[in-house]
Amino acid sequence: MTTPIEGFSKLSKEDKINYIAQHYTQYPKETVAVLKQYWNDDEKLQNLHDEFIENTITNFYLPLGIAPNFLINNKLYAIPMAIEESSVVAAASKAAKFWQTRGGFKTTVVGTEKVGQVHFMFHGDVEKLTTFFKLLKPKLIQSVAAIVKNMEKRGGGIKHIELRDKSSDLDDYFQLHCTFETLDAMGANFINSCLEGFAQCLKEEAQLYAPFTDKEKDLEIVMSILSNYIPNCVVKAEVSCPVSDLKAHHGITAEDFARKMVRAVNIAKVEPYRAVTHNKGIMNGIDAVVLATGNDFRAIEAGAHAYASKDGRYTSLTHASIENDTFKFWIEIPLALGTVGGLTTLHPLVKLALEILQNPTAKELMQIVAVAGLAQNFGAVRSLVTTGIQQGHMKMHLLNILNQLGATEEEKLSLIEYFKKHTASHSAVVVAFEELRNKK
Ligand code: MEV
Question: TM segments (predicted)?
Fold first, then answer.
């Protein structure tokens, strides 16, 4: 059995690889070869990637695709998407093209407020704490003046600091609930630095506050951290057109298609099992752009799903309606994104993705990302209520299966042709592939 290792992080990259290969894989030589195969020949570029995280042993590739023809507020975009799942880029491109001739996507940023909290325990008189907080507030702001200076110069900074009594949920639990404007930065570092400054100031000032008893002076800071729940950092994206412009789809009339779309969205509104998958489809589009632009997709995921449950039940992030013969389809989603800082100037592909998007501000990126989510959802639900999802999926999946089977280019072309007329399931592809091979 392998024993734990001390000081792994101090080993050289070569030694780390050798250690993993020898202790955790069956064929160490092959393991080393696979890992090194993904190293970049350009040493500078490789070093850059090595330093993004700790204990790097190689690079992990994801395809970067482009979904063109997105008309957003009358401006045309080609959207870069980093994702491993087939069909996503194709579905986005198809939805973009569909709406491009129907007025395109319209978007509005509803708010850009970020949130952070200092969580602390206070054992004592709440009224005294409230009076103390009123005196403390200007000192809190003063305590982080150096951190906030540049952000304020650009028009951002701290918006509000509020004392929240949470002791009815948890004994002695209080918060400084703080809101921020971080402009084009996602703002995690800025917010966390401010919060840690507030926490220190709170602790120090409590100790100096004469009306407090010793127990009250000894308030305990538990943690200071931004929140990924940002219900006031929200963007709305929508498409609409006369129902008749939807055109007949796969043997159903435009009216039936519109009704089926609305019904499918309404099912996701009332049924959490469906809502989770419905929203997963939205996140297929969102995460792919978030990742390509070097943003934090875990933060986006966490915030989006929390927002989907904000009214006490997990529900759809998109909405659809037919009013006065107009079909309307829209999304409202919180997105904390940055177009400066973080990986944006470090990772060459992130830089390029932002350039392809015409170097958007964070607000513009919020709109582009929301549109990608809406387009993805439109594409998925359209397939679901018409042909079913497997037809398109299997077409794209076919190539993956053929690649796994080691098909040659000639075999791929022949089997793609064959499956235009036959239903492609995994086993059907394997059988057809074997038959084709055996024929030779
Ligand atoms: C698959 O990645 C996404 C879908 O399941 C989304 C949906 O069901 O709406 C197709």
Answer: none
